[in-house]
Amino acid sequence: MNAAEYLGHSFLDLGRQARTGVPEAVFAPGKTAAQLVSIAGRFLDSRSNLLVTKCDEAKRAALRRAHPGLHASARSGLVWKLFEKPRGGRKPIGFLSAGTSDLPVLLEAALTAAFLGHRVKVYSDCGVAGLHRTVKRLGQLEGCGVLVVVAGMEGALPTVVSALTGKPVIAVPTSTGYGAAQGGLTTLHAMVGSCSPTVAVVNIDNGFGAGCMASAINREIG
Amino acid sequence: MNAAEYLGHSFLDLGRQARTGVPEAVFAPGKTAAQLVSIAGRFLDSRSNLLVTKCDEAKRAALRRAHPGLHASARSGLVWKLFEKPRGGRKPIGFLSAGTSDLPVLLEAALTAAFLGHRVKVYSDCGVAGLHRTVKRLGQLEGCGVLVVVAGMEGALPTVVSALTGKPVIAVPTSTGYGAAQGGLTTLHAMVGSCSPTVAVVNIDNGFGAGCMASAINREIG
Amino acid sequence: MNAAEYLGHSFLDLGRQARTGVPEAVFAPGKTAAQLVSIAGRFLDSRSNLLVTKCDEAKRAALRRAHPGLHASARSGLVWKLFEKPRGGRKPIGFLSAGTSDLPVLLEAALTAAFLGHRVKVYSDCGVAGLHRTVKRLGQLEGCGVLVVVAGMEGALPTVVSALTGKPVIAVPTSTGYGAAQGGLTTLHAMVGSCSPTVAVVNIDNGFGAGCMASAINREIG
Amino acid sequence: MNAAEYLGHSFLDLGRQARTGVPEAVFAPGKTAAQLVSIAGRFLDSRSNLLVTKCDEAKRAALRRAHPGLHASARSGLVWKLFEKPRGGRKPIGFLSAGTSDLPVLLEAALTAAFLGHRVKVYSDCGVAGLHRTVKRLGQLEGCGVLVVVAGMEGALPTVVSALTGKPVIAVPTSTGYGAAQGGLTTLHAMVGSCSPTVAVVNIDNGFGAGCMASAINREIG
Amino acid sequence: MNAAEYLGHSFLDLGRQARTGVPEAVFAPGKTAAQLVSIAGRFLDSRSNLLVTKCDEAKRAALRRAHPGLHASARSGLVWKLFEKPRGGRKPIGFLSAGTSDLPVLLEAALTAAFLGHRVKVYSDCGVAGLHRTVKRLGQLEGCGVLVVVAGMEGALPTVVSALTGKPVIAVPTSTGYGAAQGGLTTLHAMVGSCSPTVAVVNIDNGFGAGCMASAINREIG
Amino acid sequence: MNAAEYLGHSFLDLGRQARTGVPEAVFAPGKTAAQLVSIAGRFLDSRSNLLVTKCDEAKRAALRRAHPGLHASARSGLVWKLFEKPRGGRKPIGFLSAGTSDLPVLLEAALTAAFLGHRVKVYSDCGVAGLHRTVKRLGQLEGCGVLVVVAGMEGALPTVVSALTGKPVIAVPTSTGYGAAQGGLTTLHAMVGSCSPTVAVVNIDNGFGAGCMASAINREIG
Amino acid sequence: MNAAEYLGHSFLDLGRQARTGVPEAVFAPGKTAAQLVSIAGRFLDSRSNLLVTKCDEAKRAALRRAHPGLHASARSGLVWKLFEKPRGGRKPIGFLSAGTSDLPVLLEAALTAAFLGHRVKVYSDCGVAGLHRTVKRLGQLEGCGVLVVVAGMEGALPTVVSALTGKPVIAVPTSTGYGAAQGGLTTLHAMVGSCSPTVAVVNIDNGFGAGCMASAINREIG
Amino acid sequence: MNAAEYLGHSFLDLGRQARTGVPEAVFAPGKTAAQLVSIAGRFLDSRSNLLVTKCDEAKRAALRRAHPGLHASARSGLVWKLFEKPRGGRKPIGFLSAGTSDLPVLLEAALTAAFLGHRVKVYSDCGVAGLHRTVKRLGQLEGCGVLVVVAGMEGALPTVVSALTGKPVIAVPTSTGYGAAQGGLTTLHAMVGSCSPTVAVVNIDNGFGAGCMASAINREIG
């Protein structure tokens, strides 16, 4: 019964294959600090750009202790190292959210896009409960080719933004509600059922995915 | 085994006891046309105000054939007879919906309130995809003390209306969406999780309940 | 990659815009004690009425240490400061619940309404398992224009209260059950499907929302 | 490939084995009229008591055309033939429901118990929206050892009846609601989460099961 | 804003009204140790029988420190004091479960029935994966008038027991599975959909309710 | 706007690529009779074995009218044509179900395996409510290397069969229950959570898949 | 009680306001043929481009009888009239699906994009069960800037396509599965949880929305 | 009230009866370290092979402290002791997963099969995002008669592996996703709805069950 040994050599290829425009991202939950330190070390040794997502405080500390050159953002849970800045799109990407509780996901999305070489415009004060402010912010986002809109609860913001701008909107539901919000599932379903047809949706709290999707679109824009 | 006979005499008390301000309403689904005709006959015989809800075309026809004095509304599925007009509130009640598919429920709500003696203001062209129009309509509803807002899909309209007016909003989710809308459950949950705290919600497609609730509030307003 | 700096100036507008009758409330979950202290400071500096909801013991302590003038209620999780008492409605608002486990939500609702300037009548001993007592309490609530009813489990209390009084009832489901209660979702759905048409429902455990909705109605009552 | 022939001889044992006190019931949905006629024929040939449940109009007609001696109840969807009346319990069994739409399930339950030899007391006018009438009916059920309570929507009736009487209550949720009722699932979950501990629940619309369970208890009572 | 004071006097009536045959039970979750100690004190002062359910280790310790005469059962989470033994039924009640993980709920049910004055027969080794043993145990339960069957996972045991004995079975789903078990909901639904019609179901892990329901039936048996 | 023409040539490759041991099956729902006739024609022209699943009466008739050589089974909804009998396994495959309503799915599974060249043993009278018969049937299945067990409702049969035989069991949940069965989802989840570890599950009513999976295993057995 | 008359004049503004790049689409379900004919007439009178979605055979026939110049596609359920061809993007948009049952949604998406002025490349033979063919097709789509991928069941195709191409993928779940597919909800959730971060999702069967979203992106591409 | 003593003697038969080919496994969650130590002691005393599953670090330590001869695997949570190696199948069993987060379940499955006497081939680097590597690995698994495929998120890997190999696949969904993954339920449902008919599924994270099922099949293979 030596299955464990048999497995030994296959543990070495953990990361996803690098592909054009998708970052070498490491999803921290479910990995120990020791595993993350070891994985990060392999990226750094080969001077590959590294992005670790959903990293809690203890793992951020362990990573930076082991690899002092790493950058970290407490609010978004990201840890990263850029050896060579990718070429992003020509236009900036716009990021909006409604309130403070959506901020971590908003930052995860915006920093992911910045990590991938794009310019970002970020506003966190655009809830549908204050529509004039929302309208004002949209004026400042006119130069963007694609927008990422982060919202929890009833998830109305992507619909409103999409209807007012006509731009493609990547909607990110968040898990910040409670009760009938069902951990974000209601927000996800509400966004998917938006009455505006230029909204597409990613997973709950998936700021990283929204940043990547917006980046892929923005690179096509040129 | 004579259970059926035993039951015989208890079938006679079908309707809900009349209470102050709640209409003697009969819910048509699950009852045959013949049962409805017989129930309606008892109301008419005693000259009690009668309201039948969710009545399909065949049942409406059967009721009016049997009782020629009845009124019917094809879009809302209501059938009614008013012997004595109740005293409604002093202010009108406002009713809004986003699009055509929400119209049957909007009408069910507004006609129920009218049946209960209230003046009603009704607008069906207020979707969040056209915000200036929504804002314009809200100006016309300033004199109302309570608003009923009907919406399907992502259900954002009650939140927007409530935030813009500060008035109490009775929200009615509709089953008009598809897929992730889950027959209206997503809309219900999204409305319940509204980021505006002056929204309360009734059952999916329950225009009748919204009309009754708004009526009860409006009577208290005076 | 300076997204974080770019965001810097937009963090300053966290609170929801003050609107007539809706309190400047701060939802504590998902915010750190330090963030809450800073937000509260801005309210106090501008002498704006402040209400913090769902505040656990540690956050309550941190807030009161930093801002000694704040009031706090351990059972309801509220922290508040009133600079100018708002003008509430002419009538008191009635608040009922079934048992001890619903008490925190009942208090959150009643204290919110009191914070908004209303007189409140509160009873926590009205479960459907003891109907005579329920009936007795309802007599004491006759002068109220709107009632808030808090219940968990099968959620029957709002239906019974609404049927016995004919008054508009704001129903608040609680998460106090277990198993088939599904964290309050069953109670929410049962209340939404009430056989009484003068019941409207807010989110699970949302005492704050019920207090605001009752306040908005009570202000319209005059 | 002669699987069909291979199966031939095993089609003959369709019915569930007769056991003490559980009727030889045939569940009609999913069986064709021809299959039901054939199955019923075998019962009649062997002079075994027969009970067919959930039988629609066409199947009832086909069964009675083929076997003129059968009895049928249109409202409850039952078809039956009693060769030898079983010995039921010493006490009657009580059956209650709230309104007309629950009547088919109430009758299915009561007729099943009658078919099994018990005396039944049946009241269909006991909704929680009219509590004095409910209380009055309970007085008439004092001699019963077990009660079957049928209700839809918020499902409060079993809790109220159980609390007022202290008797064991078999609760039957019905599928008569809509929207958040989710075809009866909400009512089922609400009944299972009843705040009264002397309530146990059977499947949605399962009047037959409730009748059998009450029968089994009543036989034990003696 | 003195709502808290206003509430003061109504906190005193926490317990459910004593009714014939339903224990004065206190549900521990959601109450602090201090609250439990105070509630228990009131029972003891008035020499009323006391049963506290779902009590964790810390609360059990606090209760026994404050009130040395209390009994406690670590496995079932019950704490109790009997001043006067109630008169139970003439027959014993049978309790079965499949495996060790269902033991706490099995004991909660059996001890509740014992607390209510009944004799109990308890077997925890009757899973459907070992059918001959199940069959053997059923022989030992022949004198019982009602059975309580506790099971998790696919929840097959109540069906098998009910089919083999023809006795009324109170089924208790447990939350011991994982994944598709959904915290016991799957087991609950499977039991409710049992192919045996003499099974009725209580809430997930609700050993207390099963004990009360079996007690109510057993008292009727005599 | 000539998208339709553009698509023209790609409509020709409808069927799934033939692979070793998986039949060229055509799933009838969602296809018109005309489409099925055309697809079947292409199979027959190339003398490829053809199996059409879930075929209702009208489609079966249309297929046989157009292609007189086709075989059809009304109960299972299968239509087929075997040009060359595949080589099945050395051992027979065993198929069991509980009652008549599970028969269509049982036959779909068994006929699929027969179509793939295997010998089949089929019993439809093995419900857990009659355990001695179940045990007797299992004796007749001793020579089988793999068993397919079809059941609805609480789905206990695969667990019992697997525990009694120790053989690998492919479990097929059916949609024959109602209410809490949720169209088969409860049965699916209960089977997946079986307390026997030698059970694996396919989709609700998926007799075809179970037949293919058993066939693939049986071919490996030799 | 003249609410119906009051409503009269507000029925005239049914359509959503034309916005840059979003078609004047009319959702047919829930509208009668007469309503659709009238709505279409208003578009034609004002020479506005018209697109009607999810149109069944009877409604298509009614529309073309009333307005002979309309085009219709039976498979996709679209009816349309182009007065002025919009200027689409410079690059073609790629559309892929797995099998025949996804074809209606694939065509709805592709024809919507074509209606909006874009060139389209469409392949319906790309299921993950035949990976070499999928890979071959992807070569033919290299010139596209954005891809729409339609799939039912386990919904794996968008993940595979996105991983192989690195292009932004709009994923459309379809309702073609059964059982555990839950009408497409499982496919929707699986796509939202894709392990590829350049996938965003629209509602179940929402080919129209996917076509609009891809169009909005493609217009930004230039 | 001496129920506890009455129960005493029945606690001794905790384990499931040993059956051919199913290990004497002990499921650790819900049992205390002390209980596990005592159960393990009884296995060791009788020199029976022992396998404990889902064992956290503290319980592993307690077991090894009490019984020094035990083996433990930290990643898979297994603890075991083999007195007599069972005779496994002639062929190896293949085990695959997509990424690192599925590794614990993959190892639980493979080690269980090894414990049961089988040779295992294990690869953890086969995600659908890197298809050429997947294809390469499948070549190395050609000698296997049955495959176990472990995956989270959209769960596409079993479908792809099954389609490429034609071998029977036991699919194990994992709970490693978040948001719409719903703790693995989406993955489970997606796998059950696989478009490949030679996939059967076990419970979420149930590596032990997959190992047993594969073992039962492999023993039949010979």
Helix segment count of chain A?
A: 8
Instruction: Indicate the overall shape of chain A.
Output: globular
Write down the secondary-structure element order of chain A: HEHEHEEEHEHEHEHEH
The helical percent of chain A reads: 25-40%
Radius of gyration of chain A: 19 Å
The total strand number of chain A stands at 9
pLDDT average of chain A, as an integer? 86
- What composes the largest sheet of chain A? 5 strands, parallel
Number of structurally distinct domains of chain A: 2
pLDDT < 50 stretches of chain A: 1-20
Note the quaternary state here: homooctamer
SSE diagram, text form:
The structure is a homooctamer of 222-residue chains.
Chain A: H1 3-7, E1 25-27, H2 33-45, E2 50-53, H3 57-66, E3 71-73, E4 78-81, E5 93-97, H4 103-115, E6 120-123, H5 131-140, E7 147-151, H6 157-165, E8 169-173, H7 185-192, E9 199-201, H8 207-221
Parallel strand pairs in A: 1-2, 5-6, 5-7, 7-8, 8-9
Antiparallel strand pairs in A: 2-4, 3-4
Helix pairs in contact in A: 2-3, 4-8
Describe it:
The structure is a homooctamer of 222-residue chains. The first copy, chain A, has 8 helices and 9 strands. Chain A is globular. The first copy, chain A, is an alpha/beta fold. In chain A, strands 6-5-7-8-9 form a 5-stranded parallel beta sheet, sandwiched between helices. The first copy, chain A, has a 4-stranded mixed beta sheet with strand order 1-2-4-3, with helices on both faces. Chain A has helices at residues 3-7, 33-45, 57-66, 103-115, 131-140, 157-165, 185-192, 207-221; strands spanning 25-27, 50-53, 71-73, 78-81, 93-97, 120-123, 147-151, 169-173, 199-201. In chain A, helix 2 links the parallel strand 1 (25-27) and strand 2 (50-53). The first copy, chain A, starts with a helix and ends with a helix. Residues 1-20 of chain A have low confidence and may be disordered. Chain A folds into 2 domains: 4-81, no CATH class; 93-221, 3-Layer(aba) Sandwich (Rossmann fold). Chains in contact: A-B, A-C, A-G, A-H, B-C, B-D, B-G, C-D, C-E, D-E, D-F, E-F, E-H, F-G, F-H, G-H. The A-G interface holds A 19-22, 25, 145-146, 163, 166-168, 170, 188, 192-193, 196-203, 206, 208-210, 212-213, 216-217, 220-222 and G 19-22, 25, 145-146, 163, 166-168, 170, 188, 192-193, 196-203, 206, 208-210, 212-213, 216-217, 220-222.
